[in-house]
Design goal:
- By secondary structure, this protein is α+β, with helices and mostly antiparallel strands.
- The protein is 31% helix and 17% strand.
- The protein is built from 1 helix and 3 strands.
- It has a 3-stranded antiparallel beta sheet with strand order 1-2-3, with helices on one face.
- Strand 1 and strand 2 form a beta hairpin.
- The relative contact order is 0.15.
- The model has no long low-confidence stretch (mean pLDDT 82).
Length: 83
């Protein structure tokens, strides 16, 4: 039996009209998110994992690094295609 892990706290969501996100997500992965700043630069943010005996901090670091390298390859390909 796997341990129970709560990642989200449920709350009432209200939708605002005509709101432009300041730093919209360009990529939402399993372990990382990539956002774009107002100046156009990209930056990664780590998501919160649920650790247990089968998925440790070390496993998360390896998985996040693999996902980050995959995204970096996609960004590089896109930049090369734009030139």
């Amino acid at each position: 039996m796997q341990p129970f892990c709560v990642v989200e706290i449920f709350h009432k969501k209200t939708k605002k009209v005509n709101v432009v996100p300041r730093n919209p997500h360009v990529f939402e992965g399993k372990y990382i998110n990539i956002s774009r700043r107002g100046d156009g630069s990209l930056y990664p943010a780590l998501r919160r994992p649920c650790y247990n005996s089968l998925f440790t901090f070390k496993d998360f670091c390896h998985a996040a690094a693999e996902e980050l390298m995959a995204v970096a390859g996609l960004v590089e390909k896109k930049q090369m295609a734009e030139k």
